[in-house]
């Protein structure tokens, strides 16, 4: 019996039916695919995480164009760093980014002398403007005076006199000389309606004139933000008439009711023969203003009919000669954008919650009036 032939290593390597070479090629292909996938993932990570950071190194930090809007009180503490100021201002949305503020401060040599204290700033200011405001010591507030919405000029004077070192007569003297206040031409020299309700800083450099000027300037800011002149023209009214409507809305409504009250006023002005209103606004607040007394629900029918004043909207058709108080921005916005509706009457049926109901007819109004009488029989506010 013969021995099987011996197969050498070299013969075995090339023996038919072997697939070692094929297996080796497939393994290389897998390694190539894995490498490509790895490089793809690596490229994606670089694109997502590295490229933006590199771009940030060579691009300007985010900044608002300014000049900003609204107002916000900012307190700078003793020893606070520029970086922490920027972070605080960014959080309050005074500036778009702390980085822009730091860069603006670096460019302003006076930034190292920013004083601790309270500053009144705007929302969405440019970083440069924010730094410029903070480096001016005249902007450091000694006191903060808050003037609520809807106050009349006489009441505003009382608030200012109570919360500053100046007496009422000093403010009255300023208001009696309106040429220095910067009132709009359509105000015709009357400050009523144009002393904007807000919180104001009072600095050591302030005078009665500068304080009242701040209020008029703040009104101008809101008028510009709301595009008062252009939108008034679209509605077919003058800016002064819009301010008069806004003051009526401020006196009569609150919150979501304001645009509805504005609509009632416009419906009565523009459709005098509808719903029996005959062009009379019939707003109690105007009679209270004519009588120089606070708003009250105790106004009598005789007072409505006999008070001799151009502000009495029960005996005079159309709008009163001017605002009956100083409205805030919400009331101004409502006057410029009244709600849609066919209402001609409104009445507050709950004096504690301020719930107000709106009616399209006098008969519907009488039903709500009965609700108020029933409420007043048991409620203290009446």
Keywords:
about 375 residues; mainly alpha; two-stranded antiparallel sheet; 6 strands; disordered N terminus; about 10% strand; globular; 15 helices; Dna Ligase, domain 1
Walk me through this protein's architecture.
By secondary structure, this protein is mainly α. The chain has 3 domains: 69-139, Dna Ligase, domain 1; 143-207, no CATH class; 228-378, no CATH class. Helix content is 48%, strand content 9%. The protein is built from 15 helices and 6 strands. The protein has helices at 9-13, 20-58, 82-91, 98-106, 127-135, 153-163, 168-175, 208-225, 228-235, 239-252, 258-270, 284-290, 301-306, 329-336, 362-378, and strands spanning 69-76, 117-123, 143-146, 199-202, 345-350, 355-359. The strands form 3 sheets. The chain has a two-stranded antiparallel sheet. Mean pLDDT is 87; it is low at 1-24.
Distinct helical segment count: 15
What order do the strands of the largest sheet run in, or round the barrel if closed? 1-2
Low-confidence stretches: 1-24
- Largest β sheet strand count, sense and barrel closure: 2 strands, antiparallel
Overall 3D shape: globular
Number of strands: 6
- Tell me the domain tally: 3
Proportion of strand residues? 5-15%
Question: Whole-Å distance between the termini?
Answer: 131 Å
Structural class call reads mainly alpha
Radius of gyration: 36 Å
Q: What is the H/E string?
A: HHEHHEHEHHEHHHHHHHEEH
Average pLDDT number:
87
By oligomeric state, this entry counts as single chain
- Helical proportion, percent range: 40-55%
């Amino acid at each position: 019996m013969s021995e099987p032939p011996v197969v050498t290593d070299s013969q075995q390597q090339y023996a038919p039916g072997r697939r070692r070479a094929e297996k080796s090629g497939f393994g290389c292909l897998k390694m190539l695919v894995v490498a490509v996938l790895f490089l793809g993932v690596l490229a994606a990570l670089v694109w997502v995480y590295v490229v933006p950071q590199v771009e940030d190194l060579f691009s300007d930090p985010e900044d608002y164009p300014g000049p900003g809007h609204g107002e916000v009180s900012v307190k700078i503490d003793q020893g606070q760093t520029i970086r922490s100021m920027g972070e605080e201002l960014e959080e309050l949305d005074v500036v778009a980014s702390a980085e822009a503020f730091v860069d603006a401060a670096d460019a302003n040599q006076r930034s190292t002398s920013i004083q601790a204290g309270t500053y009144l700033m705007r929302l969405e200011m440019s970083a440069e403007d924010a730094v410029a405001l903070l480096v001016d010591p005249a902007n450091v507030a000694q006191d903060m005076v808050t003037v609520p919405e809807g106050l009349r000029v006489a009441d505003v004077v009382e608030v200012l006199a109570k919360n500053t070192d100046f007496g009422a007569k000093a403010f009255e003297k300023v208001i009696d000389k309106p040429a220095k206040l910067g009132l709009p031409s359509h105000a015709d020299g009357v400050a009523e309606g144009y002393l904007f309700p807000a919180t104001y800083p009072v600095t050591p450099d302030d005078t009665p004139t500068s304080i009242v000027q701040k209020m008029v300037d703040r009104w101008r800011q809101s008028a510009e933000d709301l595009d008062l002149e252009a939108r008034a023209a679209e509605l077919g009214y003058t800016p002064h008439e819009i301010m008069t409507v806004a003051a009526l809305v401020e006196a009569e409504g609150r919150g979501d009711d304001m645009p509805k009250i504005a609509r009632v006023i416009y419906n009565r002005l523009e459709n005098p023969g509808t719903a029996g209103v005959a062009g009379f606004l019939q707003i109690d607040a105007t009679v209270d203003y004519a009588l120089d007394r606070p708003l009250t629900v105790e106004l009598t029918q005789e007072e409505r009919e006999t008070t001799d004043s151009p502000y009495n909207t029960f005996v005079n058709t159309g709008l009163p000669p001017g605002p009956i108080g100083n409205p805030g921005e919400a009331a101004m916005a409502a006057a410029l954008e009244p709600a849609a509706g066919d209402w001609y009457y409104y009445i507050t049926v709950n004096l504690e919650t301020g719930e107000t109901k709106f009616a399209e007819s006098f008969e519907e109004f009488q039903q709500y009036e009965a609700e108020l009488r029933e409420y007043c029989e048991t409620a203290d506010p009446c």
